[in-house]
Design brief:
Structural class: mainly alpha
Largest sheet: none
Number of strands: 0
Distance between the termini: 37 Å
Helix content: over 70%
Oligomer: single chain
Radius of gyration: 18 Å
């Protein structure tokens, strides 16, 4: 649809309907075959996380820190509009399929296995997002490795009792520092290293929960999700901005 220059917002909404609808269809077929999806609501939300406009949101906050207000407002407005239309598509499938989005208890796994699965998922997600940004193979592998380290750090800090916002700050700070080092030593574009690992840490779950809960009239749950989303996004931007202090560019 983008290649045919169709409306970006309509394309995002239809993509959300397609992704979440396919997830629901696969889950129904698996149930008929005698299998059931554990943590069905989390998987349903995860099916559309690739549509999160992480780059415009982070770039908009960067622009605010640099007093480029016009550019910041434009990027933030674009990011919020994409979030709204994706949530609109998601809400259609939620209502048609009657999906309960209430939180499920975490899956019980031995901690070393949990760390390994997180590391694999972080590497694959970071590399996949780098591919979406048309990065060369070397940059894709570097972005995947950086996403593995930074996201694992964030989740381990959270496991140790730190809230997600400060944990996200330290993870983004690590991404920014490594990107500065790689840019200096190996002449790899800094933004190519920063964007993909940061995007996978965007709080898409909270963003979509916020909009769906507002739509259902659950104001307290929606406000809690919106506050968590805002603090985490802000912490990511502040971590990357702090890393810029160590570079003269």
């Amino acid at each position: 649809m983008s290649h045919r220059q169709l409306n970006q917002y309509g394309a995002a909404a239809l993509s959300a309907i397609a992704a979440s609808g396919i997830y629901v269809l696969v889950a129904m077929l698996a149930r008929y075959a005698g299998f059931s999806f554990a943590h069905y609501p989390a998987g349903f939300i995860a099916s559309v996380l690739f549509l999160i406009p992480g780059f415009p949101l982070i770039a908009g906050l960067f622009d605010l820190l640099q007093y480029q207000t016009v550019a910041a407002v434009s990027r933030l407005a674009y990011g919020i509009m994409i979030l709204l239309v994706v949530a609109f598509g998601l809400s259609i499938v939620v209502e048609l399929a009657g999906i309960d989005l209430s939180r499920q208890p975490p899956l019980e796994l031995v901690y070393p296995l949990k760390l390994l699965l997180r590391a694999v998922a972080s590497f694959v997600a970071g590399g996949a997002f780098a591919m979406l940004f048309n990065s060369p193979p070397r940059t894709i592998l570097a972005a995947g490795a950086l996403a593995l380290g930074a996201n694992s750090l964030r989740l381990v800090l959270n496991d140790m009792g730190m809230m997600l916002a400060p944990a996200s700050f330290f993870a983004a700070l690590a991404i920014g520092l490594v990107a500065v080092l790689v840019d200096t030593r190996f002449n790899v574009p800094r933004m190519a290293m920063i964007v993909a690992p940061t995007v996978i840490m965007m709080p898409g779950l909270y963003a979509f929960e916020m909009i769906v809960m507002f739509n259902r009239g659950k104001m307290l749950d929606a406000l809690q999700a919106s506050a968590s989303c805002a603090f985490i996004v802000g912490a990511l931007a502040m971590g990357l901005a702090t890393a810029r202090f160590f570079s003269n560019r």
